[in-house]
Design a protein that fits this description.
489 residues, single chain, globular
């Protein structure tokens, strides 16, 4: 079979990425609708407690999924026969169900103790248990989603996510606004939505699911790959969630709520860019790993991904506060809005691992993530302890950016020993220069226009013009022009 050209591969990534992105945009729109509800019905202190309960489910979920869904894409393409591939999936599903059972058991036995240690009170033990059950179902559903991605069933995933999200928002609104259940509302709503999602996946994939039809040798293979992934995920949790625990200890739970609200809004970056991209990129990265033009593909993908990411961050810098005001975002969380673009920068830097880590995946060396993430995570803790008393919430933001940049850079260097691709450094320097130039222009324009929105619109339009004419070459400009012409009716 002839190899696809780099252009064809980029189009493939773009096509499925846009499909995934469409669903993610719907998710982000619903997320915006929920933000004013949270801001109106949950005080920062309550939202801080909700964030800590969520953290418990995410951290334990990162352990007890056993790395199975991470191992699935790596093992799947090792087999040519479709029946063997189904058995690989069922092996993954069995491991996920074992991990889910262990996590739920821990919740039943120790939820009150966990609540006391993390939050400071046993009062929230029941909600911790519900969240752990929801988390277990969530990472099991992730196994279904990964399998559907490998089958290129992007439309099915998106349709289900949109329907599921509509149900989630409806339940949260009813429980939060009508029943006034406070932080219990989103926790119970997430459990309901995950049960509905699991039911759909089981029905849709019923012909493929057979826990008695597995590859026994794959259990050891997937665990050997997955356990280091678990350790790596746990190490990343130190960076991603340790700041909230330190904020809760050194400042107040209300500060945790304000920081968490900003982080939640900044997660729109993941919804709009990182998640759609990674959902198609990971299968492509494994499928085309033997192609001769692979280094050039990685080089171009990294540049385009960075360019799109910077565009979203610039848009958020100029317009996100106005959009949040339109949907009724109150003054209580005003500081949350200020830190959003900076948290997005950290999320972007962290997401580069999806590209940079190829060599570690190709050579089945996920243990290196532990060697990288754990020391940097520990450094992140010390940075938070050092910076938070000085800069308050901004200390956590600064520590997060530094830690995520350090992880991405180290992954690129270490993974490059097994698969190396060059970066066009001058292009990135030009990109940074353009961003700084636009920010300076925006500041100058704001002096002459009382309406900040007009100045922001002028600045963002100028940014687009510079990107097209200065950061894209002639061939890339031509492709964009032809694509736009083809969309005309």
């Amino acid at each position: 079979m002839a190899q696809k050209s780099i252009t064809d591969k980029i189009k493939e990534a773009g096509k499925h990425g846009l499909i995934y992105g469409f669903g993610s945009i719907a998710q982000s729109a619903a997320g915006f609708l929920l933000l004013p509800l949270y801001a109106k019905h949950l005080a920062p202190h309550d939202y801080g407690i909700f964030s800590l309960i969520q953290m418990i489910g995410i951290v334990l979920g990162a352990v007890f999924y056993l790395g199975a869904s991470s191992a699935l894409p790596r093992s799947y393409f090792d087999y040519e026969d479709s029946e063997d591939r189904k058995k690989v999936f069922n092996t993954t599903l069995l491991l996920l169900l074992i991990g889910a059972t262990i996590q739920v058991g821990i919740g039943l036995l120790f939820s009150d103790i966990i609540s006391k240690i993390i939050i400071g009170s046993k009062e929230y033990g029941q909600l911790v248990l519900i969240n752990l059950i929801s988390s277990a179902i969530t990472f099991t559903n992730t196994g279904f989603i990964v399998y559907l991605r490998l089958l290129r069933k992007s439309k099915i995933i998106i349709v289900m996510s949109i329907v599921n999200l509509f149900i989630t928002v409806s339940i949260i609104y009813y429980l939060l606004v009508v029943r006034q259940l406070g932080i219990a509302a989103p926790i119970y709503a997430m459990l309901c939505s995950q049960i509905i999602t699991a039911s759909f996946f089981i029905l849709y994939l019923r012909k493929s699911i057979s826990l008695f039809s597995i590859l026994k040798n794959e259990i050891a293979v997937q665990l050997k790959f997955g356990i280091p992934s678990v350790l790596a995920s746990t190490s990343l949790m130190v960076t991603d969630w340790g700041d909230r625990i330190i904020l809760n200890q050194m400042l107040t739970t209300a500060d945790v709520g304000i920081y968490s609200m900003g982080f939640r809004i900044a997660m729109l970056y993941n919804i709009l860019i990182m998640v759609p991209f990674s959902m198609i990129w990971h299968p492509m990265m494994m499928e085309y790993r033997n192609d001769k033009n692979l280094p050039e593909l990685f080089k171009k993908i990294t540049y385009y991904y960075t360019l799109v990411s910077i565009t979203l961050i610039m848009f958020s810098t100029f317009f996100l506060d106005d959009l949040l005001e339109l949907v009724g975002f109150g003054d209580t969380y005003s500081l949350s809005i200020t830190i959003i673009p900076f948290i997005m920068i950290g999320l972007f830097l962290s997401s580069l691992q999806n590209i940079f880590s190829a060599g570690l995946f190709y050579e089945r060396k996920p243990i290196y993530f532990v060697y990288i993430c754990l020391p940097i995570g520990i450094i992140n803790i010390f940075l938070n302890i050092l910076l938070i008393p000085i800069f308050n919430i901004w200390g956590a933001v600064i520590a997060g950016i530094f830690s995520r940049f350090s992880i991405a850079l180290t992954v690129y260097i270490v993974s490059g020993k097994y698969f190396k691709f060059e970066l066009s450094y001058m292009k990135y320097f030009k990109m940074i220069a353009c961003v700084l130039f636009i920010l300076i222009i925006n500041h100058l324009v704001s002096i002459f226009y009382q309406s900040g929105l007009i100045g922001d619109f002028i600045s963002f339009t100028l940014f687009f013009v510079i990107v097209f004419n200065y950061l894209l070459d002639f061939n890339e400009q031509d492709i964009i022009k032809r694509t736009i012409r083809s969309l005309k009716i």
